[in-house]
């Protein structure tokens, strides 16, 4: 079928699979992944690059997919949270589960993917450095104490259970 004026054909690697798609020229990578590729772990929230729920890896680097046009990343390899866990949970995802580091969990796929990428880039990264890396990933439930506990597990600084947090602490 011929392309419309506002369409373009792109080739991408998505979670290790070659994919050719016809997309709108103004279509974000977030839209393409969710609506054309069924990657619903890539989540829409702010849409302006400040929350990190839409985090994916583009050629290994964590990026906000709401800020990227699909046409801009043609030819790249994109990894989504689903893709990173195709065969088994990643070590970061396992650390989040073991630390019960979530409430609604909306932020967690992007958070765990960014943490995994940072750890793979620098296996000696400390938990404070990891927290800095994740500064652009926000949790609207305020699960930060549990998230820090997960990051401590990830870098091997802790195997203790997640800290108990009161409702007042979470909502203050
Ligand atoms: S939805 Fe992309 S950074 Fe918030
Ligand atoms: S656990 Fe709900 S947004 Fe983070």
Characterization of this structure:
This protein has 172 residues and is α+β, with helices and mostly antiparallel strands. The chain has two domains: 7-84, Beta-grasp domain (Ubiquitin-like (UB roll)); 91-171, Orthogonal Bundle (DNA polymerase, domain 1), CATH 1.10.150. 33% of the residues lie in helices and 16% in strands. It is built from seven helices and five strands. The protein has helices at residues 29-36, 81-84, 91-98, 108-121, 127-133, 144-154, 167-171; strands spanning 7-14, 17-24, 55-58, 61-64, 77-79. A five-stranded mixed β-sheet has the order 2-1-5-3-4, sandwiched between helices. Helix 3 (91-98) crosses helix 6. It is elongated and about 55 Å long. The termini are far apart. The mean pLDDT is 91. It binds FE2/S2 (inorganic) cluster (2 copies).
Q: Any idea of the CATH class of the largest domain?
A: Mainly Alpha
Number of helices: 7
Bound molecules: FE2/S2 (inorganic) cluster
CATH architecture of the largest domain: Orthogonal Bundle
Structural class: alpha+beta
How much helix is in the residues? 25-40%
Q: Specify the biggest β-sheet.
A: 5 strands, mixed
Oligomer: single chain
CATH homologous superfamily classification of the largest domain: [2Fe-2S]-binding domain
Number of domains: 2
